[in-house]
């Protein structure tokens, strides 16, 4: 099976709080995360596992941990994932648990970027696993601005945009489920605010 435990032994216990980053579609979670890592490369972002085939240019262990169905299901049965999902009724996706534990135990600022349903699955399981979690919601300045950004990407058809915007309305309504909200007015400001939160959580001098 693919090795997804790069830091220390499987007995490592968490000593910090995991930051779970979520928010509505097109809000810019990935862009904020990328800016944060550009400025603070010591931050570790969890790499998901998947059973789908690698796309051109994707690297195992960087973009995803690529697994066979049998490998994934065996790891799932063994409790090796923090959360899992089946996407489009086909490919399995999951967050490997041990790398999260090990980075937290090593005092490494640790982030999981995930959709709303994934954040809810983490919340259901975190307590039984002994994980302390801070749930961070990345919000747009307004729904109209979110709509402008989505349309401006030019990556979806009008029908797909309409579906995403309906999904975004549902996701925005879940903001109260999170501990902290960061408004993505600009990527720089949101990344700075996220780093301030991380520095507080991990006792890092800014």
Poorly predicted segments: 1-12
Order of the strands making up the biggest sheet: 2-7-1-8-9
What would you call the structural class?
A: alpha/beta
- Total strand segments: 9
The CATH class is Alpha Beta
C-alpha termini separation: 40 Å
Strand content: 15-25%
Detailed description of the structure:
The structure is a single chain. The protein has seven helices and nine strands, in the order E-H-E-E-E-H-E-E-H-E-H-E-H-H-E-H. The strands form two sheets. It has a five-stranded parallel beta sheet, with helices on both faces. The protein has a four-stranded mixed beta sheet with strand order 4-3-6-5. The chain has 206 residues and is an alpha/beta fold. It is 41% helix and 20% strand. The protein has a single domain, classed as P-loop containing nucleotide triphosphate hydrolases (Rossmann fold), CATH 3.40.50. A hairpin with a 3-residue loop joins strand 5 and strand 6. The termini are far apart. Essential for recycling GMP and indirectly, cGMP. GO terms for molecular function: ATP binding; GMP kinase activity.
């Amino acid at each position: 099976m693919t090795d997804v435990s790069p830091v220390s032994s499987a007995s490592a216990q968490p000593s910090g709080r995991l930051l779970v980053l979520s928010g509505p579609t097109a809000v810019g979670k990935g862009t904020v995360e990328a800016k944060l890592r550009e400025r603070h490369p010591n931050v570790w972002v969890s790499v998901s596992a998947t059973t789908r085939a690698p796309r051109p240019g994707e690297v195992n262990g960087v973009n995803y941990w690529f697994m066979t169905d049998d490998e994934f299901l065996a790891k799932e049965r063994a409790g090796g994932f923090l959360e899992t999902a089946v996407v489009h009724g086909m490919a399995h996706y999951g967050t490997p648990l041990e790398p999260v534990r090990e980075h937290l135990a090593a005092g490494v600022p640790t982030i999981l970027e995930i959709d709303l349903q994934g954040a809810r699955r983490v919340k259901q399981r975190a307590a039984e696993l002994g994980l302390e979690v801070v749930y961070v919601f990345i919000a747009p300045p307004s729904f109209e601005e979110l709509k402008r950004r989505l349309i401006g990407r030019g990556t979806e058809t009008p029908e797909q945009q309409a579906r995403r915007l309906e999904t975004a309305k549902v996701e925005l309504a879940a903001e109260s489920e999170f501990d902290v909200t960061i408004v993505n007015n600009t990527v720089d400001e949101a990344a700075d605010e996220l780093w301030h939160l991380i520095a507080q959580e991990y006792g890092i001098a800014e």
